[in-house]
Design goal:
Layout lengths: L1 E5 L4 E2 H6 L5 H9 L3 E4 L2 E2 L5 E2 L4 E5 L18 E4 L3 E6 L15 H11 L8 E2 L8 E7 L2 H13 L3 E9 L7 E5 L2 E3 L7 E3 L7 E10 L2 E8 L6 H8 L23 E10 L4 E6 L4 H9 L5
Parallel strand pairs: 10-17
Antiparallel strand pairs: 1-6, 2-5, 3-4, 3-6, 7-8, 8-10, 9-10, 11-16, 11-17, 12-15, 13-14, 15-16, 17-18
């Protein structure tokens, strides 16, 4: 895959390319694994001095796929795709990556899609991962350079993810709220988390979208990314997610998993130079609850 840039200042090629988020590791792959660098049509090395206005072309070699990741054909609901990124509407019930307990995962499905379409790069790069029983928008980079550029956005916290959750509890849930409470591992479990002063800082914002008696559909934004953060924070304030029996959620409303759905993703596509907003509709199990229960007027 070839990329073009115009030098905007005198510098060495490697320094200029670093400003475009091409790392030392990627430069090494370009040098030793079939790539190349050209300046004004002439092949050059990474220490060549650029002048303002020079055209720099970089050929990034195709990546070898993960041989241990088995491709699995699956009917994917793709919300967006171009040469660099793919955004999936993930169904619940599937883990993001394989493990001892999960061998038919979203990563397997994406690999199957790449193989079926004979894409030159068949290595799966997950940018935003979702838990097995969380549905919604999930972002993939289609090559390592694209992944590196989005990692920078993740570090700068400029990628926005918003979630819908159905929560249930007694008492009054304020229309808007900020939940700021540290999250730590449970003392007696390697899976569950808890709010505890020994934990790491965690911040969740929410706003009520609809109310059905003591059940609420809330729109959530994460400011930090702790394990089980939404589930732990809402359980902590007395409004656990429907279906989330791990944290005390009710199983009485036909939801068979934690009622959590990533409905909106906002990121900057660096190759288009524009912000992309990708949205996913409410999943069927959320809609069934909404249709069954009468919203408060």
């Amino acid at each position: 895959m070839r990329f073009e840039f115009i030098a905007d200042r005198p510098s060495k090629v490697k320094v200029f390319l670093k400003s475009h988020e091409i790392s030392k590791g990627l430069l090494s792959k370009i040098k030793f694994k079939g790539g190349g660098i050209w300046v004004n049509g002439v092949e050059r090395n990474a220490i060549h001095m650029l002048e303002i206005g020079d055209k720099v072309e970089v050929e990034i070699p195709n990546e070898t796929p993960h041989e241990t990741l088995t491709p699995v054909l699956f009917d994917l609901d793709i919300l967006y795709e171009d040469d660099h990124f793919l955004v999936l509407n993930k169904p619940y019930g599937y883990a993001s990556i394989p493990s001892m307990n999960h061998t038919s995962t979203i990563a397997n499905f994406i690999k199957g899609y790449y193989v079926k379409n004979q894409y030159p790069n068949q290595r799966v790069h997950i940018v935003t991962r979702l838990d097995r029983d969380t549905s919604g928008v999930m972002l993939f980079a289609k090559h390592g350079y694209a992944h590196a550029r989005l990692d920078k956005q993740l570090q700068r916290k400029t990628i926005e993810k918003r979630y819908y959750a159905l929560v249930h509890g007694k008492g009054k849930l304020e229309q808007k709220g900020e939940i700021i409470a540290p999250i730590a591992r449970d003392e007696d479990s390697i899976i569950t988390r808890r709010v505890h002063q020994s934990g790491k800082y965690a911040h969740t914002s929410y706003e009520i979208v609809e109310q059905f008696g003591d059940i609420y559909l809330v729109d959530i934004r994460l400011h930090t990314g702790r394990t089980h953060q939404i589930r732990v924070h809402f359980a902590h304030i007395g409004f656990p997610l429907l279906g989330d029996d791990l944290y005390g959620g009710s199983l009485d409303y036909g939801i068979e998993r934690q009622a959590l759905h990533c409905h909106r993703l906002v990121f900057t596509n660096p190759y288009l130079g524009e912000e992309l907003v990708i949205e996913s509709p409410l999943p069927d199990d959320f809609e069934r609850v909404r249709q069954t229960l009468k919203p408060n007027i």
